[in-house]
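Researcher: Checking consistency across runs. Here is Lipid A acyltransferase PagP again:
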Amino acid sequence: MIARLRAAILCLLLFFPFASAVQACESLPSWAQSACNRLDQIWTEGGNDLYLTGYSWHNRATYSREKIDSFNELAWGGGYGRSIYDEDGDWQGLYAMAFLDSHSKIEPIAGYGFLKIGQISDNFRLGAGYTIFLTARHDIMSYMPFPGILPLVSAGYKDAMLYATYIPGSSGAGNVLFVFGRWQF
């Protein structure tokens, strides 16, 4: 329920200028205002993030050798976002990226991420959570945007964070480990 709510609010905020997000939050039902206000807080108070993408591993157990050889696994790209560490020390962020997909076509993505953070030392932390997003691909509905939700794990040192997510699928579709990084400045 909460994940669906956050996805709906994120979609709403993506279509409204962030300057008017407070007014948009006030016009929502009371049960949705808290999530909307959190997204506004991330955008207005959060730090700047630079995202760099770079690798997508296709599960060798679900694809033929010929298909693996045809895929682009260097998913070069990047993006921008804003994020905060909330009152519980957990990471929450809004992001937009574009990268080369498995067929070397550009894939845009924008979304919200949440990670429950475990502080290992002053400078090192691990996280696990999820991301809710909108993306578009040339091979899925001819670039018609569609939503998704995926698991997200991370390992970070100081202002840098390495993320990974797994896109599930069936034999010959999906089953991709996607790795990207974030530097907060």
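Researcher: Does this match what you'd expect to see?
Model: One thing to look at in this run: The first helix runs from residue 2 to 14.
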